[in-house]
Amino acid sequence: MIKVDEKGFYGKFGGAYIPEMLHPNIEELRENYEQIVASPEFQEEFQMLLRDFVGRPTPLYFAKRMSEKYGAKIYFKREDLCHTGAHKVNNTVGQIILAKKLGKKRIIAETGAGQHGVATATVCALMGMDCTIYMGALDIQRQRPNVERMRILGAKVVPATSGSQTLKDATNEAMRQWINNPVDTHYIIGSVVGPHPYPEMVARFQAVISEEIKKQLLEKEGTENPDILIACVGGGSNAAGTFYHYYNVPQVRLVAAEAAGLGVSSGKSAATTALGTPGILHGSKTLLMQTEDGQVVEPHSISAGLDYPGIGPVHAHLFDIGRAEFVAVEDEDAMKAGIELSRMEGIIPAIETAHAVHALNMIEFKKDDIIVINLSGRGDKDLDTYIKWGGY
Amino acid sequence: MNRIHTLFQNKKERVLSIYFTAGFPALEDTLPTMQAIESAGADIIEIGVPYSDPIADGPTIQDSNMIALENGMSLKKLFEQIKDMRQTVSIPVVLMGYLNPIIQYGMESFLKKCQEVGVDGLILPDLPMQQYLDEFKTLFEQYGLSNTFLISPQTSEQRIREIDEHSNGFIYMVSSHSITGAKTGITEAQIAYFKRVQAMNLKNPRLIGFGISDAETFGTASQYSNGAIIGSAFIKKVKDSKDLKADIHAYIKSVIQ
């Protein structure tokens, strides 16, 4: 049974390894979130916003041409059609309502590709809350359109200039700023990472993805259960949402696509389960890429959203017990998969998502297996990267 | 009884603890820095073990951590550098570090090594109290190491009491809602917090850290506690030092006057 325990552990992974200065914030959240989220007022507002603001349910789309090519029934869960262009907004809608109920006035968040930053800036605008986004200086350069979107929405974007200047460093910076402003500020973590209760809380807000897949697949195929689910994994929020209601349905194979960067053994990779060992990062025990001395290794991926040296503790657990299959997709293959999806189905995916699409070439399946790929985000924000890559 | 207990038995006020980053500014500066801190008249040495992702630290200490790592600093290297420190350093020595490098080294091997070289206590900011109690307390005791927890203005009275019960060296009072080096000076609100904790009559001595940088802030902090900890301000002084010993002496003397 895959389930978080009272102390926030999934098997060996999870917990809340935080400086004492954050203890009151985390306790406040832990003590209140389940009750708030379960309340009818919360649910009413959350469901209304998911429907009328985000545009849910998102379609489950049968990809005819790709199904013919690969010899399976391939469906795409169209999270790319969510308002703001990716699944990230499911979580920010949930957390902003929660922050309001906790009486917070100010929101901070980290972002990698900028999708979570945009989703956070969007809900802050919606609720009239002050918003500051921490983003690696390198990511600010490679995700320019998203930076400007956040600014248009009224958020302040602050560059994180330490380390590799990517998602890990933005997360460090957001945690530091939370320590500096513990009373009036809520930190909206964008992935299933961080100290308990964040990983489970974010997963629950994203679980709407698998809830809908179940219903939609039942209508289309007469079964709730696909043979295979595929999602990309950086921290792992879209994968957690895609897998959530299937964790304990063993006949459904779970496939997680990590970013191999220039190759798993190239020294320029973000394939955490392939290269990582147990350790502590951003408040939880998980698998992370590190040196023998326990220093965190700088990751690399062409996709800013997967450029993270750790992985959510639930995924470390799924890997540990063999419940999910992990494949490591190289930059070049992901880019080609992005082009293939564009040309065969008319959908330009985010480069993160393209990793999940390429996984079709790396796993075994039977003819006519039902495969659902979570199309976590659209490619508008990545046009610069596609153009620079140029292989189309 | 380790050196920390002896110190606080003999000295109840104006205890000065100096934090510095191991292997900074140059790799082999660790031991000379410790010797200079002692001869200048400080009471406790806190050795910062550098880490790639120090989430409770501001830019000054982040920067020193990064430079130390680039210099080739590691926990293994640190233990080599300080293996004979007790021949020249007699005041209490505390290691401050994030959990991950220690876990990779192995907690028990780490504690054993600390005892072997003469380290007296530990400050592990991201080791939560419950985890310490569940997994490590008996090991700390077995190797005679005291453990210091942090408290902040946000920490509830009940939790301060629990922390006091499980501490056996001193309590590290974070002076404000902040990471290290973020704010300087001491405000009315902070003084109210210092007084509130002072009135709790805790069994452990208290040192105030974060925002202490000179004789004035050291003096104010010492009025409401047993002394204070200086970190970022010290790192700034040694960063571009051409004469480490002279600069450390001049700075520490200016603080304790």
UniProtKB/TrEMBL annotation, chain A:
GO CC terms of this entry: cytoplasm
EC identifiers of the protein: 4.2.1.20
Modification N6-(pyridoxal phosphate)lysine occurs at: K88
Cofactor(s), names only, from the UniProt record: pyridoxal 5'-phosphate
Domain Tryptophan synthase beta chain-like PALP intervals: 55-377
Job description of the protein: The beta subunit is responsible for the synthesis of L-tryptophan from indole and L-serine.
Protein name, entry field: Tryptophan synthase beta chain
Source organism per UniProt: Belliella pelovolcani
Automatic annotation (TrEMBL), chain B:
Catalysed conversion reaction: (1S,2R)-1-C-(indol-3-yl)glycerol 3-phosphate + L-serine = D-glyceraldehyde 3-phosphate + L-tryptophan + H2O
Protein name as it appears in the record: Tryptophan synthase alpha chain
Pfam families: Trp_syntA
Assembly notes: Tetramer of two alpha and two beta chains.
Residue spans crossing the bilayer: none
Keyword Ribonucleoprotein assigned: no
Pathway per the UniProt entry: Amino-acid biosynthesis; L-tryptophan biosynthesis; L-tryptophan from chorismate: step 5/5
Family: Belongs to the TrpA family.
Taxonomy, superkingdom: Bacteria
Keyword Lyase belongs to the record: yes
Residues at the catalytic site: E46 (proton acceptor), D57 (proton acceptor)
UniProt function note: The alpha subunit is responsible for the aldol cleavage of indoleglycerol phosphate to indole and glyceraldehyde 3-phosphate.
Gene expressing this chain: trpA
EC number in record: 4.2.1.20
Cellular compartments per GO CC: cytosol
Enzyme's top EC category: lyase
Molecular function (Gene Ontology), one example: tryptophan synthase activity
Keyword terms: Amino-acid biosynthesis, Aromatic amino acid biosynthesis, Lyase, Tryptophan biosynthesis
